[in-house]
Amino acid sequence: MSALRLLSSAARHVPSALALQRRGYAEVADKIKLSLVLPHQAIFTSADVVQVNISAASGDMGILANHVPSIEPLRPGVVEVIESGNTSKKWFVSGGFANVHPGNKLTINVVEAAPLEAFSLEATRANLSEALKVTAGNGSEEDKIKARIEADVYEALQHALGSK
């Protein structure tokens, strides 16, 4: 019985402790500080942006100010940065991690990234076709696995270019 009183006593004190941690909706005027970083280059360094859309492993998501802190692995896809005035910049990334920190900070670490307009749909289709031939061919298992990864990236890039 004393354990039950202890739990009920603890439950009465929890709401006041959590009241300080309540989260609300992002305000339109709120910004998030974005750092988009490659091993050899920083594309953004603590830049104030309105929203960032990412291709997370768990699904596509938009990140606004006051987003819940989290770590998201990225799959090959587009990182879209929406700045003030609804101007948008898009990069295709091969994968990486997005870290949403408390205090409206977002860090995206990727191995490779390039502006989406730097890619050609025709070249992407040709490279995808070549990678798929290797996966269906008589090569070594290692070559087939590498080609499958390459094909996955080209498929994501083709999808991104098709929906520009």
From TrEMBL:
It holds the Pfam family ATP-synt_DE_N. PANTHER family: ATP SYNTHASE DELTA/EPSILON CHAIN (PTHR13822), ATP SYNTHASE SUBUNIT DELTA, MITOCHONDRIAL (PTHR13822:SF7). GO terms for molecular function: proton-transporting ATP synthase activity, rotational mechanism. It comes from Paxillus involutus ATCC 200175. Belongs to the ATPase epsilon chain family. This is ATP synthase subunit delta, mitochondrial. Gene3D superfamilies: F0F1 ATP synthase delta/epsilon subunit, N-terminal (2.60.15.10). HAMAP family: ATP_synth_epsil_bac. It is found in: Mitochondrion inner membrane. Its main location: mitochondrion. SUPFAM superfamilies: Epsilon subunit of F1F0-ATP synthase N-terminal domain. GO terms for cellular component: mitochondrial inner membrane; proton-transporting ATP synthase complex. Keywords: ATP synthesis, CF(1), Hydrogen ion transport, Ion transport, Membrane, Mitochondrion, Mitochondrion inner membrane, Transit peptide, Transport. Residues 33-110 form the ATP synthase F1 complex delta/epsilon subunit N-terminal domain.
